[in-house]
Amino acid sequence: MANLFVMHTSASLTINENASPDVPLDMEDALNRMVPEGHQYRHLDEGLDDMPAHVKSSMMGCSLTIPIRGGRFCLGIWQGIWLNEHRDYGGPRKICITLQGKPRSDGRLYK
């Protein structure tokens, strides 16, 4: 098993379709309708996009747990891991990855 954790409060992780270039655009449109930047937020210390980014991050989540089989993530054919940036101009992001499980019985590495 792999646990992925994004170490920021204005970015998120999710699993979603990775084939169509329209899916990320539609997801962003949907999130912006649910959490608009024009709302009267009290927390404005880092700009108008900051508080909506915190809300979107909380809605989407900051971690994923993904099974590993044969040394690879066990994902469906159309699934991909998304790092979602919710700020208009986000900076570098760090992801902490923790692996759990048993090594191969023959001691060889997975390719």
Automatic annotation (TrEMBL):
Domain of life of the organism encoding this protein: Eukaryota
NCBIfam families from the UniProt entry: TIGR00149_YjbQ
PANTHER family: UNCHARACTERIZED PROTEIN YJBQ-RELATED, UPF0047 PROTEIN C4A8.02C
Pfam annotation, one family: YjbQ
InterPro entries assigned: UPF0047_YjbQ-like (IPR001602), YjbQ-like_sf (IPR035917)
Record-stated family: Belongs to the UPF0047 family.
Name assigned to this protein: Secondary thiamine-phosphate synthase enzyme
